[in-house]
């Protein structure tokens, strides 16, 4: 049975024949303009407003772009209730986060979300029964530089709309790659832990249309 753990993403090939100078200059100018506009969009998305209740949610020390020394310190109310709205190129859906099930995983997701980590991330895997995103390298192997502790498997079945963290090829829980089931888990529930930490409460129809050409535009979190 396939598991949301080791997806692969194809990188677009490049390489074109030389063009005339005038055309080359025009293309260069256009490319620069596109990069500038895209940069403004991404920067704006990453600077999205953060609720006062989550203002203290900061990442650990940054070692390089998208890489951190460790998982973030705890900042959420583990007895609170949170909603994460994921805006994508196919519309938005809302996840009800479950800190009572997996507080460390929810805290990690919230911190990455409010700091813009998921902005622009592609959906790396989108078979019939789940979608997966959260890899900054677009390879299925990347992450934030750390892994998460394994949460208890739990007794409940994974219904459609369940949210968990991917397992890497070495068996560890990814620090950023998450998946959402589009159908119930085959066989009822997995034997291994995938750190179940949320469920889709709104916009499930948009979730079902996502493919590997789609991206996350933003993730906003609020406490309810």
List key phrases describing it.
single chain, about 220 residues, eight-stranded antiparallel beta sheet, two-stranded antiparallel sheet, 3 helices
Q: Average pLDDT value?
A: 82
What's the total count of β strands?
10
Report the sheet with the most strands, covering strand number, pairing sense and barrel closure. Answer: 8 strands, antiparallel
Termini gap = 37 Å
User: What is Rg?
Assistant: 18 Å
Structural shape? globular
Helix content: 10-25%
Notes on the structure:
By secondary structure, the protein is an alpha+beta fold. Helix content is 19%, strand content 24%. The protein contains three helices and ten strands, in the order H-E-E-E-E-H-E-E-E-E-E-H-E. The chain has helices at 21-46, 103-114, 204-208, and strands at residues 62-64, 67-68, 82-88, 91-97, 130-133, 147-148, 162-167, 173-181, 198-202, 216-223. Strands 3, 4, 5, 6, 7, 8, 9 and 10 form an eight-stranded antiparallel beta sheet that branches. A two-stranded antiparallel sheet has the order 1-2. Strand 7 (162-167) and strand 8 (173-181) form a beta hairpin. The chain is globular. Mean pLDDT is 82; it is low at 5-46.
